Amino acid sequence: MLRHEIFGIPVNALTYQDAVDWVAERVATGTKSWILAINPEKIMKALSDERLRLLLLQADLFIPDGIGVLWAGKILGRPFPQRVTGVDIFVLLVKEAAKRGWRIFLLGAPPGVSKEVSQGLALEYPGLQLVGYHHGYYQAEEEAQVVSKIRAAAPDILFVAMGSPRQEQFIVSNRTLLGVPVCMGVGGSFDVISGRKKRAPLWMQRFGLEWSYRLFLEPKRIMRMSALPKFVILVLRKKLGMLKLEGDKK
Ligand code: UDP
């Protein structure tokens, strides 16, 4: 599958259908795989944190989540066919799971939320094999127990909604022990599905303004989002040939 690189981080050029086909193949063959959603914030963090960059590089499929990634692809001549968001892939994969009999497990979000999302999905998709859920607020010493619970449930897909970089660290540290074919970090998706967090209206999503809506609802994200203008400047400098970064091959 075509893969671009943006400042040292690979990003696959794919559609939603490509992602579903990829997961189907991984589940069928039982190949241990990790899907990672890439946005400008993660790229910027990885640029200043080599350990984080090496951790992220262990993923197998990198989806172009943030609109900034799509824009950077266009400006740098490495276009992506479409934006593929973590939350939309999550919903799509749950639907496919109900059709194809894939077993799924949900990990993350506060206790009431993971339970509510599990119950809601089970109602909405009869036949869905939701083999377990667990909240994401356990103590470090409880992690081994959480991993055993997931392993015993033997899901085909594990969705981890514990925010970044916690969910990525969880997947990398435990993927061998977990024995799950497909692991995916889905950030705040359970909050969205349960209706606790609202997504931007469709017109804002289409115009690439979802980030501003999120900032409006959660002003405390301002520090995290300050990565966005820095990313834009970096892309423009790269475009103008003013920037050379180690690991940036093209
Ligand atoms: N969360 C969790 N355990 C933690 C910290 C956070 O389960 O120790 C959950 C939190 O309740 C929320 C999600 O992780 O549901 C993070 O959402 P956010 O929108 O911040 O994700 P990000 O933007 O980092 O992908």
Q: TL;DR of this structure?
A:
This protein is of the alpha/beta class and 250 residues long. It contains 13 helices and 8 strands.
Describe the structure.
It is a single chain. The protein is of the alpha/beta class and about 250 residues long. The protein has one domain. Helices cover about 50% and strands about 15% of the residues. The chain contains 13 helices and 8 strands. The strands form 2 sheets. Strands 4-3-8-7-5-6 form a 6-stranded parallel beta sheet, sandwiched between helices. A hairpin with a 2-residue loop joins β1 and β2. α1 packs across α5. The radius of gyration is 18 Å and the shape is globular. The mean pLDDT is about 95. The site of uridine-5'-diphosphate has 14 residues, from α9.
> What percent of the residues sit in helical stretches (DSSP H or I)?
40-55%
How many discrete structural domains? 1
- The spatial strand order of the largest sheet comes to 4-3-8-7-5-6
Overall strand count: 8
Task: Record keyword descriptors for this entry.
six-stranded parallel β-sheet; alpha/beta; 250 residues; two-stranded antiparallel ribbon; globular
Note the topology.
Layout: E1 3-6, E2 9-12, H1 16-29, E3 33-38, H2 40-48, H3 50-56, E4 61-64, H4 67-75, H5 86-100, E5 103-108, H6 111-124, E6 129-134, H7 143-153, E7 157-161, H8 166-178, E8 182-185, H9 189-193, H10 202-206, H11 210-217, H12 222-225, H13 227-239
Parallel strand pairs: 3-4, 3-8, 5-6, 5-7, 7-8
Antiparallel strand pairs: 1-2
This protein binds uridine-5'-diphosphate.
